[in-house]
């Protein structure tokens, strides 16, 4: 299948930091379909060779095992092309169309890796130029809006030129191998399904913790914050995968219909419940990885006195028969004690204990990163006599180790799926809008609150109020157990 993959924002960070390295991996693994051309478009004048040299130089910043040798790069570079475009000029879109039409590849994938404020104009111009035929797919990178109204505006612009099935909205967490495994765990194995409900599960915790601070992205981050940057998309997508009903098939819409139902079942926030169930924090100076690090307010391009949150912990519920009353705790932050993403499913303890000692319960830990695997925590007797209390043991499944050679990174997976036209791991507009609808009352409550976020020391697990939030239900975060 021949394809043209066009990157708007072809010289931007996302393209050279994530997309080109991912494509190179696909190329190296022989997964990139043959007959492909990769076209970067951007504002400045460059030749193909200059662009290839630019990308080659940038590969020096990629982790060593993923860097191409000179010979590999030379072969990969044959696919790379560059084109100058002023995104407001209709003639430039006509030129792009002519470039694509000349070869008549089976598919043209247009990836908008630009600032989102350009999405509307690009979509309009693509439609006007006739670059929206059935063989065209458009990939939209987050952030998709900063609230419901702006997300709807982008979706309207997309809809004016493209059908929903041509729109591939990226949430790169959905491309992570562990997330696909979550689907496999739940719907490819019968073992957990009978337990996957309120009768057996005490609570579910989703933690997306980063050691890194905001780095040089202070200006972007300050207008975004952790709720928009991580909760509205990544954390909620994970929650939907955990809580959804079994879909009738593995088709994209069958899955997305079920995910949407979960989003619609989330307990809505009110000003009172925001005050009670949502904790926002902002890091101050501390120590990360043994090194002193600056506080958020000292970071580059962060305005003095900013109230932007770099940490969020919240409690919610999925209001349906399966999950009524089960707390879902979501937590994310920068400059935390660990860089890890995981989902912990805490099961209820046995109803009638017959062994001495504390009533520990089973838990299933779905690890997304840094490793990718599953841990099932059970209780076992060491064999120390009949009055022995049970000890925790865990069954560890290290997917990285088991499937190492076949593991595909998130962007590699999603790019290959976009080329192949598989929508399963992309977000539909109604899901995305519903997620905005749910977080908006939190944004409004914070806008009206002059107190601002609670400080936490960089390198900690966030403000103490996050522990208090969960302790109220008699629970603890997994690292406190
Ligand atoms: C991005 C956020 O969507 O996800 C970043 O904008 C964040 O702020 C990143 O650092 C985290 O992704 P990952 O894959 O490194 O966990």
What does this structure look like?
The chain is of the alpha/beta class and about 475 residues long. Helices cover about 35% and strands about 20% of the residues. It has a nine-stranded mixed sheet, sandwiched between helices. Strands 3-2-1-4-5-6 form a six-stranded parallel sheet. Helix 6 links the parallel strand 5 and strand 6. The longest helix is centred in the middle third of the chain and has 19 residues, at about 225-245. It starts with a strand and ends in a 10-residue tail after the last helix. The model has no long low-confidence stretch (mean pLDDT about 95). The structure holds 6-O-phosphono-beta-D-glucopyranose. The site of 6-O-phosphono-beta-D-glucopyranose has 3 residues, from loops.
Largest sheet: 9 strands, mixed
Total number of helices? 15
Which quaternary structure do these chains form? single chain
Low-confidence parts, pLDDT < 50 over ≥5 residues? none
Mean pLDDT: 95
Tell me the radius of gyration.
24 Å
Q: Which small molecules are bound?
A: 6-O-phosphono-beta-D-glucopyranose
How would you classify the helix and strand content by structural class? alpha/beta
* Count of beta strands: 17
3D shape: globular
Please estimate the helix content.
Answer: 25-40%
Q: Order of strands across the widest beta sheet?
A: 16-15-14-13-7-12-11-8-17
N-C termini distance: 52 Å
Which strand-content bin applies to the residues?
15-25%
């Amino acid at each position: 299948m021949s394809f043209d993959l066009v990157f708007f924002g072809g010289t931007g960070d996302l393209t050279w930091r994530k997309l080109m390295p991912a494509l190179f991996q696909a190329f190296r693994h022989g997964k990139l379909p043959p007959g492909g051309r990769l076209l970067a478009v951007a504002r400045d004048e460059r030749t193909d060779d200059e662009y290839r040299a630019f990308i080659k130089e940038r590969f020096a910043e990629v982790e060593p095992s993923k860097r191409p040798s000179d010979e590999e790069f030379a072969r990969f570079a044959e696919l790379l092309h560059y084109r100058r475009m002023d995104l407001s000029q209709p003639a430039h879109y006509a030129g792009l169309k002519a470039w694509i039409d000349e070869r008549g590849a089976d598919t043209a994938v247009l990836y908008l890796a630009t600032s989102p404020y350009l999405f509307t104009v690009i979509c309009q111009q693509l439609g006007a130029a006739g670059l929206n035929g059935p063989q065209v797919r458009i990939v939209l990178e987050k952030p998709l809006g900063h609230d419901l109204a702006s997300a709807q505006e982008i979706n309207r612009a997309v809809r004016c030129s493209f059908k929903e099935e041509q729109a591939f909205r990226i949430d790169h967490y959905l491309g992570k191998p562990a997330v696909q495994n979550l689907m496999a765990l739940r719907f490819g194995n019968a073992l957990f399904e009978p337990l996957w409900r309120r009768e057996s599960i005490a609570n579910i915790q989703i933690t997306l913790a980063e050691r890194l601070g905001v780095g040089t992205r202070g200006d972007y981050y300050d207008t975004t914050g952790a709720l928009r940057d991580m909760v509205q998309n990544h954390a909620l997508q994970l929650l939907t995968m955990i809580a959804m009903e079994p879909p009738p098939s593995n088709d994209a819409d069958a899955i997305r219909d079920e995910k949407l139902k979960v989003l619609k079942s989330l307990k809505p926030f009110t000003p009172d419940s925001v005050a009670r169930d949502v904790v926002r924090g902002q890091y101050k100076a501390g120590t990360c990885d043994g090194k002193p690090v600056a506080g958020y307010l000292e970071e580059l391009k962060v305005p003095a006195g900013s109230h932007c949150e770099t940490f969020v912990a919240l409690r919610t519920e999925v209001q349906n028969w399966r999950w009524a009353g089960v707390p879902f705790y979501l937590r994310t932050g920068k400059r935390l004690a660990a860089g890890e993403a995981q989902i912990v499913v805490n099961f209820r303890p046995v109803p009638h204990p017959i062994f001495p000692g504390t009533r520990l319960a089973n838990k299933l830990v779905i690890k997304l990163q840094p490793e990718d695997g599953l841990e099932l925590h059970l209780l076992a007797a060491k064999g120390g006599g009949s009055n022995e209390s049970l000890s925790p043991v865990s069954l560890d499944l290290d997917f990285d180790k088991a499937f190492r050679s076949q593991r595909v990174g998130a962007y590699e997976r999603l790019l290959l799926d976009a080329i192949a036209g598989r929508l399963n791991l992309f977000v539909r507009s109604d899901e995305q809008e519903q997620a905005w609808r749910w977080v908006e009352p939190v944004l409004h409550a914070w806008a009206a609150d002059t107190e601002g976020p609670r400080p936490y020391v960089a390198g900690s697990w966030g403000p103490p109020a996050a522990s208090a939030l969960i302790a109220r239900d008699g629970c603890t975060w997994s690292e406190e157990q």
